[in-house]
Amino acid sequence: MRGAGRATTATASAPAQTATPSTAPTAPVTPAAPEAPAPGPDTAPAPKGPASPGAGRGTAHGRHAPSPARKAAGAIGRWLRATVLRSAALVALLVLWETAPRLGLVDATFLPPVSEVATAWWDLLGNGQLGQHTRASLARSFGGFAIAVVVAVPLGLLIGWYRPVAAFLGPLLEVFRNTAALALLPVFVLLLGIGETSKVSIVVYACLWPVLLNTISAVGNADPTLVRLARSMDLSTPRLFQKVILPSSVPAIFTGIRLAGAVSILVLVAAEMIGAKAGLGYLINASQYNFAIPQMYAGIITISAVGVAFNQLLVTIERRLSTWRVPA
User: Fold this and answer.
1) Cβ neighbours of residue 207 under 8 Å, at least 6 residues apart?
2) What does the alpha-carbon distance between residue 184 and residue 204 come to, in Å, rounded to a whole number?
3) Helices (DSSP H) in 178-245: which residue ranges?
4) Could you give the count of Cα atoms lying within 13 Å of 162 in the half-sphere of its Cβ?
5) Which of 52, 88, 185, 283 is a Cys-bridge partner for 299, taking CB atoms 3.0 to 4.6 Å apart?
6) Cα–Cα distance measured from residue 282 to residue 304, given in angstroms and rounded to the nearest whole number
7) pLDDT tens digit string along 302-317?
8) Is the pTM of this model over 0.70?
């Protein structure tokens, strides 16, 4: 009983000793310094010193992000190179034209230097004669050209799509397509007189065939797979032309239109040399009879400039109508 009491007393005093707080003084706890993160794939090394002014030069970022000034300079340089390349042959021709008469390689009476021709062209422009003749020629040429396009494109679509119509009109087309327009000029003058009607009619006749034949070829060469696919979708004939035939035929049709634009000016010059009182053809013919050779060459240069400008206009229209095409 005495041993049991000692054990009980020891057991009861143990919790009292554990619960009693210690009165010993404790040292202040200082916060530990943060540990440096271990280097990993996403951790960039800290810079060891101030960055130098040319530190980023030659890096991939610097090469792929040129300044706007450098971009503009590069674009201007490319444009200058293309311009020089395109105009080199023309400049060489003008230099040869200027130097050959002055060096005695050709007779300056029949081929004056280009500077004299430019002076004559400026004089004609100043006194209003060049503008008057140019307006008369453009009215006849563009009028006949427009009539030919309006007639030839629908007729070509009709002939190219319907085989019975092509078989019926084929022999007649072969006869007239091989007859030169200038060979029929006396016939037009005899039937229609020497007025404006005969000149516009000869332009219509000359421009009709390039547009008509290219349109027929374009319709005949349409992709048969696309045509069958459109037919399987139960598209009507007008919708088939709108969605398949016309878009695929635009390049070939405009090739014929551009040829017709050049033909309209060339044929008109010949037509204006017979019974005309105004026009670039009349100017060239009258200058030849009066032996005003610089004025004659001025008229020829004007015709060339009008033809180039007209062709560029047609090319621009073709590009606008062919924006759906994927470039090769």
Assistant:
1) 144, 145, 148, 149, 152, 260, 261, 263, 264
2) 12
3) 185-192, 196-220, 224-232, 237-240
4) 11
5) 283
6) 15
7) 999 998 898 888 888 8
8) no
